[in-house]
Every structure is written in C-alpha cells, then in structure tokens.
Amino acid sequence: MKSPQWIGRSVPRIDALDKVRGATRYASDIVLPEILWGGIKRSVYPHAYIKRIDTEKAKKQSSVVAVLTYEDVPGLNGFGIVVQDQPVLCRDKVRYVGDAIALVAAETEEALASGLDAIDVEYEPLPAVVDPVSAVTSDVLVHEKKPWQFSQGNIFWQNTIEHGDIESAFRDAYFVVENTYKTSRQMPGYMETESGVAAIDGDGNITIWCSGQHPHREQMQVARSLGYPLEKIRIISNPVGGAFGGKEEITIQIYLALLTLKTGRPVKIVLSRQESIVCGLKRHPMVIKIKTAVSEKGQLLGNDVTIYADTGAYASVGFGVLSLTMEAACGPYKIANARVTGYCVYTNNGISGAVRGFGTPQATFAMENQMNLIAERLGIDPVELRLKNALSRGDISPLGYRVAQSLETRTILEKIRDFQTWKDREKWKKKKTNPWIKRGVGIAIGIHPVGYGKNLPDTGRASIKIDEKGIFHIACGCPDLGQGNATCYAQIGAEALKCPISMVRVIFGDSSLAPNSSASSSSRAVYATGNAIIDGAKKMLKAIIYAVSELYCIEKEGLLIKNSTIYGRQSMKKICSYRDIASVLIEKELDTAQGVFDVPNAESPFEAYCIPHYVYSAIGNIVRLEVDTSTGQCHIKDIISIPDCGVVINPMGLEGQAEGGSLMGAGYALLEDVMIKDGITITDELSTSKIYTALDAPKIKVLPVEGYEESGPFGAKGIAEAVTVAVAPAVTHAILDATGVLPDSIPVTPERLFMAMKDTRRY
Amino acid sequence: MKRIINLIVNNKAYEIAVLPNRTLTQVLREDLNLLGTKEGCGIGDCGACTVILNGRPVNSCLVLAVQANGCNIQTIEGVADGNNLHPIQEAFVEYGAIQCGFCTPGMVLSAKSLLEKNPKPTEMEIREAISGNLCRCTGYQKIVEAIQAASKKMKKR
User: Do B141 and A659 touch (CB under 8 A)?
Assistant: First the structure.
C-alpha cells in the first residue's frame, strides 16, 4: 500500500481558528430580533402526585408572553431514545426533583424568573424510591403504568446471559473471590450547559440551534411531540460545547420548539449550571456483586455477576448502558463459564443515561479489582495474571461469542510489562519522602465496543459534492462534540479523494444540510461515518474517471488519479485537474456521491439487542500515586494511557481524547459524585460536584499500540470512550499497592480511605 | 434605575447606560455584542467568562458592570492583532489545546495575563494560573504545553 498523505498526521482542528479567536457562535450566542427568554418550571419533590397546576398569576404578568403545560403539547407527551417514558410536561405525577411541569416565555430574563415563580403547583408527596437494590422489591412504584413490555414493577429491564456451566466452575475452583463494588453518579460535565434558540418562519418552518448528539433523531423526537411535519423541523447541532454522552437524549429541544410555535417568536433557553447539574443525565450508579472461580495456577474458571443499575426516574438509554455493563462484566478475559444478571431499576434519583464509557467503566472497575484480589491471593504479578487470561482475537468470550476483529489486549499488557515506569516501581516507591506518605503503582486494562451493537440499525452516511472550483463538500449529520471527528472526516476525505485537505470542506451537525449519519456516540463517529466517506469518495472518483474518459475519449482503464489530477496510466501525462473537470461533472449531474456504511452485526449464541459488538477498542493504564496516610488524601502523580484504536488518524487528536478521557477517569476514581440524598441533589454546583482543575490534574502520557482494523476507515477504530474506562481500577490498584487496602467504592474520598485504613488497624 | 458607565474594551471607549444588577459578562455579551466571552456557571466556579480587567484576570460574572466603571478591559476579541493571532492563540491551535472550545477564550486570557507578568513560568505556575478555568475535554495537558510553547515564542519575538 502507498504511504498515506493525510492519515496519521497531526492536522490542527478544522474549527480551531474560530474557536481560539472567540468567533465561534454557540447556540447561546445566537441573537435574533424580538427574541424571548424561555424557561422551565420544575418539580421540587422527588416523587409526588400533581394535584393542581395554576398558571393564571403567571399569565397575567405583563412581560410574560406564554405559559404552557401538558395541555399545550400537541403531539406525544413523552420522549426517550428507547422508550418514551419521560413526559415533555408532567400531567399528574413528578418522578424526580427537576421534572418539567410548565414552560414560560418572557420578554426578559427577570420577567422569566418572575413568571416561573408565579406558577403555583400543588403536590401530594409520595415516598421516594432511592435505593436501586431495594427498589426491585419495593411496593412504591416510580411508574405505575408499565412503561415497556419488558418492565416489571420498578425493574425497567432485566436480563441474564449464561455460558458454559457456572456451577461446575465453582465446584472445580481452587479458590473463589467474592466482592461487592459500588460506583458513583458521575456527571458528564460539559462546559456549555444545555442551551439553545428556536425560531419559526412564515411558512411554519422551525429551526432549532441546540447542541445535541444526533440531529436527525432530535428532529424526529421534536416532530413527534409537536405532532408536526418532520420536514418542517431543522436541527442545527454545531458547534457543541461538550456533550460526553449527556446530550444524546433530548434536553431542551422540544421546549424550544413548543415555545416558538406558541409565540411565533424566536426563543432562547439557557439552563443555569445548577439546573444542568440537577436535571442533566448522569452515569448510572451501580452495585455489582462478583464471584470469581480461580484455578491453582491462576486460570479464571468462572464468573458469576449480578448488577443493579440505578437509571433514575426515566430510562433514556438505560437498557443499552446495562447491556454494555453485562458485556464488560467479565473483563477482557477468557472465562469458560459465566453467568451475568443485570437489573436496570427505576428510582427517584434524577436521571441516568449515556455518559462516556456507557456502562463499561462500572464493569471494568469491578472486574479489574477482582483481578487485583486474585493476584494478591496467588502472590503473582498482576500483569502476568492478566496475560495468562487475556482475551484476544479469535477467542471465545465469557458470554460465548467469538471476538471477530482486532483486539490488542496482549500487546497492551506486554507494553505495560516492559514499560520503565512499571519495571522501576519499587525503586520509585522507595524514594525518600515524608513518613506519612505511601506510594503505589497500579495497572488496569479494559475494552470498549465501537458502534451501537447487535440488531440495532447503525449506519454511517456521507454526501460528497464537488463544486465548480473542484472543492469537495462532505456532509454528514454526525456532529462534532469537541472530540475532533470532523477533522478526521476532512483527513479521511482528503485521503480517499486523493487531494489536499485544503480542497475539502466538512458540513456536520445539521439535519437539513447533511444526511443522517446517526449519532455522535458509541465511539462510532469516526468508524461509521469515516467508512461512509470512503464509500462516497470511491463513487466520486469513479464519476470523475467516467467524465474524463467521456470528455477526452480515453478508456476508463487507461486513467489514474493522483494528487487531484487525472493522468494517462501508461504515459503518466497530465490530462486535467479536478477543477478542470468539475463543471463537466456538474453539467452531467454527477457532482454528488452518496456514501453509506452499515456497521456489521456481530454473531452470538444468544439473541439480544445491543450486545455483542463487531469491533472493540482496548486500553491499558499505569497510574502512580501518593497517599497521605494521615488524611486518606490521594494524589495521582501520572497516568500512562495505552490505547488500541487501530490505525491512528490524527495523533494529536488521539492524545487529546486519551488525556481528557484519562482525567475524567481519574475524577471518577477519586473525586466525582453528584450526591443525591432522599431524592434531592445536595451537590448542585461545580464547587461541590467537583471536576479536576489544572492544578490537581496529573501528568498524562499517551502511547498507542500499533494496530490495524480491517473493517475500519484506513484501519481505524473508535477510541473516545475506551480511554476512560480503565483509569479508576488502575487508581484503586495503586491505592492497594500503597496501603494494602483495596477500595471497593468510588470515588475514593479521603474519608472513605482513611476509615478503611483505620479498619485494618495497621494505621 | 440605569447608570451611565464608561468602559474601555479592547482599546475602544464605550459610554453605556446599565442597570446596577447587570454583570460585566451580561453587558459585554448583550450590550456590546462581544459574544466570545462565555458563561459556564455564573457564580465564579468555571472561569469561562474570564476577561482581563486593568491587567488582572477576573471572572466577569462576579463583577457588576457598574464596578467596572472607568476600567480597561480586554476580551478574547481583543487578543489577536487583526488577522494575526497572538502567540498564545497560535500555540493553542498548533498544540491541540482546543477541543469543544467553550473554555478556550477564558483559558487564553488567563494564560495571557500570566505571561504578561511572568514571561517564563514553571509548569506549576502555569497550572496555578489556569486553575480557575475548568476544562472537561483536554485533561489540561495540551493547554499547559501550549502555554509553555507560547512563552518560548514570545521570548523570540
């Protein structure tokens, strides 16, 4: 193969110049004449019947233009990616603090606040369901009417997958390790809160500028709730000020559309940070019970896992999240016998949904800690234990399906084993320091799927159009949330179209200007849409060859393309450039090519939606940290991130993903938890629901392994999520190494670690 | 009741009538249309609204516009010299210090304020100077590297 021109180069982001000048206009920056401020009246109870909604006082206020309740939702009063169990505006019951009850549009921000205040809601409070484990058997139901055919009581969905003979594994075991792990409610933490503007024109066309992750699905959900023609709704989701999964579901798009439809005027909604933290989607808190059977020589014989996932008041993608937790519950290891049971449970604790990692971080935290306990018990090196059991391409996974595509788990483990930081760990730990400081070094590995998964439609689409200057305009619906996929699209386009990147423009995140390329989620944006761009580019090059062959009367086979120029194959004589032939293509109506890529379906012995997946990316982490034994405070010194993402399209972009993902993982391990007590969020600001600052952040180093994925665009796989999934267990492994205590709950706050150390009576 | 205030913003003088409860962020964004200044929390936690006020970086959401009366303010729109990016901006682009971009204006201004006072900061000094600017995308690594590179670039010029 020819060496690539654009793949593997650290091309700066295509949107960097505008962003660094402050010229990028996010949705909240849009200014339109006659614009109104919109806002949402939200429930103050976690669980209550609504007895009465009185909007009269609010409506009488002079600067209030509209007040809407459930009666004003013309279409389906419900939304949700899988099941539409979340009311657009609640009618008779609220299920979390923050549930939407009414909308107000007003002339000013102050009038909006006063209008919202003037709405009087009378409640009859109900006991709140707050614990996902006891919710399973609770008589108090979050949803009295069954929201889905598979739901039962407070269990939104449950599943068991069994492979092999789990009972025999425990009979044959040399020893069994059993533990229960608890994970926290991590917020996505995007810097731009849910913000947007909607406007309606004289023909009733509604345009919504609002950051989201799938413009075409948002268009469909808005149209459904408005009872409105789909083609009259346009979603523009570009630029996006961060999303991390949290904007995959509808946030405020339907509210914007309802208010602009009602008032006929443009409307702006900007959620406050507090509102965003309370009402935004979070990572599912989980309780994971694992029992692992191990042979004398350290072979994993069986794994029995039970998972309780707190999906909060509404399901959103809880079904998918739990599915991925189940898929990852046995780690990237060969285990012949496994039983995994999962419960996705409704509670009145806010709403859980998609967050970078999508169920995998919880499972990886639990299973990697099992590996640490097993290595301790056997007294063997933790890397060796993992190498002994590592799952590779061609192996049968614990759930019984064959790993079909590239998976560099072994290469990652070998790289960790040979890495100086790991080899010199004892030397580093012995370096002189204060007597109350203990040092530790930890490792962990994980895998994360690319794409939606089995039996779910997962199609990348791209439309490529050449203009009269010979510039290619690549349009794909999939937005860029900040992760840099649009820059990868330009690189893939330039490579596949055999032209400089300066001749490529990318149009993305717009339901009208670009074809539906599905969501920017599931680590699929570069993989699926990138492949669609390659498909479209092939068709475009074919059209160019055809047009040149017609125009110059040369057999198609006698032509070849190089550097945006068409040559005679034998003579290597230049015939014409893309620019020269562009007008001919336009005249012949051959100027547009449509590219499509269907993510392949995985094969599996069990019937399921969502799992397993066709392609997985992998990750390994090394973490060095210090523990202050007098306080329990941990300080991470550095994180090494070793991703397997196949061929790296943009090294600088990959590093950005891995560094950001590592820090998000570190926050998950030590810092982050949106705490809800009796259904009420008690950490509702950035100063209490903390994320890392530059001052506390460790140094992060990224060293990708060389891989190649045949089904990926130029050999690439998605990586946005894998980079975050294994950091937390590497941190707890380092804490174990430093203190002899293995934390089984995250975040490992100083108090938790201090008390756990005290319990050992060694401190 | 509105009060008349005088501001110099990006070397341009303004006389504006503002309500006493308006923040500097609101006045910059809504009255002066300088939309590069972002609001991420409104209570001084995230630093997205950072501007340079009389040579010091401030959270403009915590400054009332009337308090800024008579002050000299620089926003992100005033950092580049026409089409020529400031070395800090160049380094942010070259080193991949930008992802979603929402924190970028505030981050650039905090960095600029640091390098004006301390042209050769240590890594810790850089991290401290931007510790009031939250970024969820980058892990800060490339932002720190970009500011180090900008410090070198500025020394050369």
Answer: yes
pLDDT score at A1: 47
Q: Give me the domain span that covers residue B130.
A: 87-156
What single-letter DSSP state applies at residue A611?
Answer: -
Low-confidence ranges of chain B (pLDDT < 70): none
Any chain A CB within 8 A of the CB of B62? no
Do A655 and B96 count as a contact with CB atoms less than 8 A apart?
yes
Residues of B in contact with A672 (CB under 8 A): none
Which pLDDT value is given to residue A270?
98
Residues B38, A26: C-beta atoms closer than 8 Å: yes
- Indicate whether this complex's ipTM tops 0.85: yes
Nearest to residue A28, comparing CAs of B78, B42, B2? B42
Alpha helices per DSSP H over A615-726: 651-670, 722-725
Last residue of a domain, one of B55, B78, B101: B78
Measure in Å the smallest separation between the Cα of B148 and chain A Cα atoms. 14
Q: Is A391 exposed, middle or buried (0-12, 13-18, 19+ CB in 10 A)?
A: buried
Enumerate residue ranges in chain A where pLDDT < 70. Answer: 1-2
Chain A residues inside the 8 Å CB shell of B134: 191, 686, 691, 693
- The answer to whether the Cβ–Cβ distance between B136 and A31 falls below 8 Å is no
Q: What is the pLDDT of residue A511?
A: 98
Domains of chain A (ranges, CATH numbers) = 27-126+189-279 (3.90.1170.50), 282-453+605-759 (3.30.365.10), 459-501+514-598 (3.30.365.10)
Pairing status of strand A100-106 against strand A36-42: antiparallel
Q: What is the pLDDT of residue A761?
A: 85
**For the purposes of burial, counting CB atoms within 10 Å of the CB of A10, is it exposed (0-12), middle (13-18) or buried (19 or more)?**
middle
pLDDT at B157: 77
How do residues B110-130 score in pLDDT, each as one tens digit? 999 999 999 999 999 999 999
How far apart are the CA of A276 and the nearest CA of chain B, in angstroms? 10
| Angle between helix A727-739 and helix A360-378 axes, rounded to 10 deg | 30
Q: Both B91 and B72 in a single domain?
A: no
- Say yes or no: B92 and B66 in one domain: no
pLDDT at residue A763, rounded to an integer? 86
Residues in chain A: 763
Cα–Cα distance measured from residue A318 to residue A316, given in angstroms and rounded to the nearest whole number: 6
Q: Does B133 touch chain A (CB under 8 A)?
A: yes
β-strand pairing of A64-68 with A100-106: antiparallel
Which H helix or E strand runs over A737?
helix A727-739
**pLDDT, tens digit, for every residue of A339-395?**
999 999 999 999 999 999 999 999 999 999 999 999 999 999 999 999 999 999 999
- The number of distinct structural domains making up chain B is 2
Do B60 and B92 have their domain in common?
Answer: no
The predicted structure's pLDDT at residue A553? 96
What span, in angstroms and rounded, lies between the C-alpha atoms of A495 and A6?
6
pLDDT at A2: 66
Task: Report CB contact under 8 Å: A273, B140.
Answer: no
CB neighbour class for A643 (10 Å; exposed up to 12, middle 13-18, buried from 19) = buried
Residues of chain A positioned with their CB less than 8 A from the CB of B43: 273, 685, 687
